[in-house]
Specification:
Blueprint (H helix, E strand, L loop, with lengths): L27 H4 L10 E6 L20 E6 L3 H11 L7 E4 L18 E8 L4 E13 L5 E4 L2 E4 L2 E5 L4 H10 L1
Antiparallel strand pairs: 1-2, 1-4, 3-8, 4-5, 5-8, 6-7
Length: about 180
């Protein structure tokens, strides 16, 4: 497992009861058979993290009391690299970027959301079925949905997520061994 990724899994003793406010995500291997070429590049991040950006010196625990979600737009890797280059950080192929999908400042993962899911709905036009997959894990970012300018274009700073599908063989092997 590379050291520039964020992965963690829990094994439960039994099934977690479902309710109308939650649903199980599809297995990534199952979801891979769905056609992603016609899907929108929209994803959803959820978490109990801070609702506003904090300075590194501010150690107060200001987590949200309720689960929050934000709609993000997946960003091409080359575009995201323009952001990370200006920050002096490296963007690897194991990472995916996603800034706010609308014109609202602050829609992003924030401090305290690390390890949370980035999910995406995939739709198969042939079967007319959709499936939610977890495509990423909240890793890091600069600010919480702040506006910025890169190469003369106004945009939101993207959140950086670990690409979960790249690690599924390791996840399955580790879960089976333990």
């Amino acid at each position: 497992m590379p050291n520039n990724c964020l992965n963690s899994y829990l094994r439960t003793k039994g099934r977690i009861p479902a309710n109308s406010n939650q649903q199980q995500i599809c297995d990534i291997e199952t979801a891979a058979v769905l056609d992603v070429s016609n899907s929108q590049n929209i994803a959803v991040v959820t978490g109990f993290g801070h609702e506003n950006e904090r300075s590194d010196n501010d150690l107060k625990l200001n987590a949200s009391a309720t689960l929050k979600q934000g709609v993000l737009k997946l960003m091409p890797h080359a575009t995201c690299r323009d952001f990370t280059n200006q920050w002096g950080t490296d963007l690897t192929q194991r990472m995916v970027c996603a800034p706010s999908a609308n014109d609202t400042v602050g829609i992003d993962a924030c401090r305290g959301d690390s390890g949370g899911p980035l999910i995406r709905e995939l739709y198969d036009e042939n079967t007319r079925k959709s499936c939610w997959i977890q495509m990423g894990i909240v890793s890091w970012g600069y600010g919480c949905g702040k506006k910025t300018t890169v190469n003369g274009v106004n945009s939101f700073r993207p959140g950086i997520f670990t690409k979960l599908p790249l690690f599924m063989a390791w996840v399955n092997q580790t879960m089976e061994a333990n």
